[in-house]
Specification:
The chain is mainly β. The protein contains no helices and 21 strands. Strand 1 and strand 2 form a beta hairpin.
């Protein structure tokens, strides 16, 4: 699933399949109020995303939405109300979602129950860590990309007890983090050689290696279910 804007019509979310004949894609819905990252439920039946919706008569907030891929309605339905959400990740068992919320220049990490819509704060609002791209590690820990007060944008792990552990410490920026299917390896974009490329990090050992070497830039990696391939946004001279 991906967002597409061709310059002629509003941004839409599309669903694509790689087949023997090539790329088969179909349009699902218009991104009314914007569309953030999209994520599937573990069984592939539901698509989750962040989008803008009216909350009351005078306020318009970005909330967590869900879209049933079996019935395919015209628009997704709202899971939360007035959350000021961005980013998201779905838990391995499909019961909850991680989202980033913001208020007056501070960010927080919130977990949402996908059945009730109830939310609880895992990392409270703080200006010291500007949080982005949370991902479940599946063992009570969460990996997140964050910019600290010194301007560093690194990868951090929130331990099961709430403690924060720093994984990378470079002058470069590490963004767009995603995980391998076994959730033991993190893939992300970094500009440590002045060109954005995809890198990988073994979360257990701390070993890093470079995955791509492009000229224009590589962003937003997503790993195939078998862990053997990665797709990403590539930028070139055109």
């Amino acid at each position: 699933a991906y967002k597409r804007n061709d310059g002629y019509e509003s941004t839409h979310v599309h669903l694509a399949r790689l087949t023997a004949r090539g790329w088969d894609s179909r349009k699902l819905f218009r991104c009314y109020g914007g569309c953030g990252r999209v994520a599937f439920s573990p069984d592939g039946s539901t698509l989750y995303l962040i989008g803008g919706r009216w909350f009351g008569k005078h306020r318009f907030y970005r909330d967590l939405l869900k879209y049933d891929l079996k019935t395919r309605p015209r628009q997704p339905v709202r899971v939360t109300g007035g959350l000021r959400a961005r980013e998201l990740d779905i838990s391995p068992d499909g019961s909850s979602a991680l989202v980033i919320t913001g208020f007056w220049g501070s960010t927080a990490l919130v977990e949402v129950d996908l059945t009730s819509g109830a939310s609880k704060t895992l990392i409270p609002l703080s200006k010291d860590l500007q949080l982005n791209q949370p991902r479940y590690l599946g063992d009570g820990r969460i990996i997140v990309s964050s910019q600290s007060s010194g301007g560093w944008r690194d990868l951090w792990v929130r331990e099961a007890d709430g403690a924060m552990k720093r994984l990378t410490r470079t002058p470069a920026r590490e963004i767009g983090v995603t995980l391998s299917p076994d959730r033991k390896t993190a893939y992300y974009s970094s500009d440590r050689e002045d060109v954005w490329n995809i890198y990988a990090l073994d979360i257990g050992t701390g070993e890093e290696w470079q995955v791509t070497r492009v000229l224009g830039g590589a962003f937003n990696p997503s790993v195939s279910p078998d862990g053997g391939k990665v797709i990403f946004n590539a930028y070139g001279r055109r």
